[in-house]
Design goal:
The protein has 207 residues and is an alpha/beta fold. Helix content is 18%, strand content 31%. The chain has helices spanning 3-29, 130-133, 136-142, and strands spanning 33-34, 39-41, 45-48, 53-56, 61-63, 78-81, 86-89, 94-96, 99-102, 105-108, 113-116, 119-121, 148-150, 155-156, 161-163, 167-168, 173-174, 179-180, 188-191, 196-200.
Length: 207
């Protein structure tokens, strides 16, 4: 076996061991409450307001940069949660270099898989009124924010955006590169900009 290959593999294992421990320390230092077996591979960018709440369930993992996921390249994951906002993530969820920017709330169920560089943004970030945008304080006061809710077992493809006020139903799949601007029901595939249902995965049980 090539010596250089062996050295690279050893280096990666050492780095993974370091970041796994550093990641937990970083989350704890930022007052993120997390469950058992949290895995953080790579360095996340965390900006959590002291007035915010962030809870992560058991068995979750975050990959961030370092080419761990080739679709995310070296992009670091970001979690930014503003004053009085909340992020609640269920058990056994996985993320690869996500951008989570929350002003109101993000609630996620169990077994959610989030592809590379998916953006969760529950606010317009600016007022839609051009007069408001001329004044920073007025712009900030008049922007609109609404909760995002993600059901159990959802799969969100790489480079998608999930915008304010959206609910994605359980077991649904969001195609890569989609922009989700409205609610998506359970058990469907949705894709596009804006995302629309393109396939029903199974018959719904209405009993």
């Amino acid at each position: 076996m090539n010596l250089l290959f062996i050295i690279i593999q050893i280096k990666r294992r050492i780095e993974s061991s370091f970041f796994w421990r550093y990641g937990r320390w970083q989350f704890k230092h930022c007052h993120i409450i997390y469950g058992k077996d949290l895995m953080v591979n790579g360095r996340m960018i965390l900006d959590i307001s002291p007035k915010a709440e962030v809870r992560i369930g058991d068995g979750c993992f975050f990959k961030s940069g370092r080419g761990i996921n080739p679709l995310a390249s070296n992009i670091k994951g970001v979690i930014k949660v503003h004053d009085n906002a909340s992020v609640v993530i269920g058990n056994h969820c996985g993320f690869s270099s996500p951008i989570i920017n929350i002003w109101h709330s993000l609630t996620m169920g169990d077994y959610v898989q989030v592809g590379a560089h998916v953006i969760f943004l529950d606010s317009d970030n600016h007022s839609l009124n051009y007069i408001d945008r001329r004044d920073a304080d007025m712009d900030d006061r008049n922007k609109k924010s609404k909760a995002i809710v993600i059901g159990d077992d959802v799969l969100i493809g790489a480079n998608s955006m999930v915008l304010k006020g959206v609910t994605i139903g359980a077991r649904s799949v969001i195609g890569a590169g989609s922009v989700v601007t409205c609610n998506i029901p359970d058990d469907v595939i949705a894709a596009g900009n804006p995302a629309k249902v393109i396939k029903i995965l199974r018959e719904r049980n209405d009993d």
